[in-house]
Fold:
Amino acid sequence: MAVNPTLINSREEIKKYDPDDVLGSIEALADQVRHAWKDTQKIQFDSINSPRQIVVAGMGGSALGASVIKHLFKNQLEIPFQIVNDYSLPAYVQKNTLVILSSYSGNTEEILSCADQAKKKGTQIVAICSGGKLAQIAKENQYPAYIIDAKYNPSNQPRMAIGYAITGLIGILAKLKLIKISDKEIEKVVETILTTSHQCAVEIETEQNPAKSLTFAIVDRRPNLIAAEFLTGAAHVASNQFNENAKTFASYFQIPEMNHHLLESLEFPKSNQLDNLFLFFDSKLYHQQNQVRIKLTKEAVEKQNCVALTIKMQSDSKICQVFELITLASYSNFYLAIINQINPSLIPIVDWFKEKLAKS
Structure:
């Protein structure tokens, strides 16, 4: 089916393909951030005492906040921080480990398995969920919990609760004095999201709209998102949303790691030159050598006749650039779904897989 570029200029037309209001969740990102920050500051963590390492157990959208924080706060976190996307906790997890169990629905089977193991090991436990079995476990065991009141996620899709996921985890770690962040910094994040959202809004024409322009560059191509340092987790968020919202095969890669192998991978198959689009998220806040690497990597990709674009982050702080990237990409993958005339909310193959797995 040929794309229809005019669809994304009309809210009325968009609504035909977005009955579950994914756009509403994107436009409410700033509200999610404010809401999550306010709610996490009310949680009491009397049972948590000087952990020696942090393990966050989460799957899909429920793990994206941890991915962002692992890279964003790398220079602040003074204890090991690991993400578990599986049924089992690492062997080193013990009483002095803080295990954060993250499941938007509260019913993710891998996380419930980790919850059982964490309890048996006697670890320190915090839960993040909107309800379900995990909320019940937290209540029965008196675990500190951030119960997400997702009133600013009208689509009710976990991946679109990214403001809750990131800021909720930031709020928990800040309350535990494991990272430092101020109310003023959170408000700057909100301002950045609102500014970027205004630039990417439905009412802004393609020529002045960075998200729409990016969308049309991606049509019929596989986006490869390239980032470094503190933006790596944000690229992960964007990649997942392209996968689920736009039903588009997207990947993310990290500078400088990719320079040691991926540059030799584009010769075959020959369709690489037509199929791939490389998006380089550049920042003046990167290490100087990584800024050079971004430039040279783009040149290397272009030498192999692949299309490459540089997207420069404009915000003044690392955390604001993270949300600038996420906001831009959220609008872009949403618009990509609409011009391809598909519902960005539905995930039929994932749902089919879960149904089959439940019967196995």
Remarks:
- The radius of gyration is 20 Å.
- The longest helix spans residues 318-339.
- The mean pLDDT is 96.
- The longest strand covers residues 97-103.
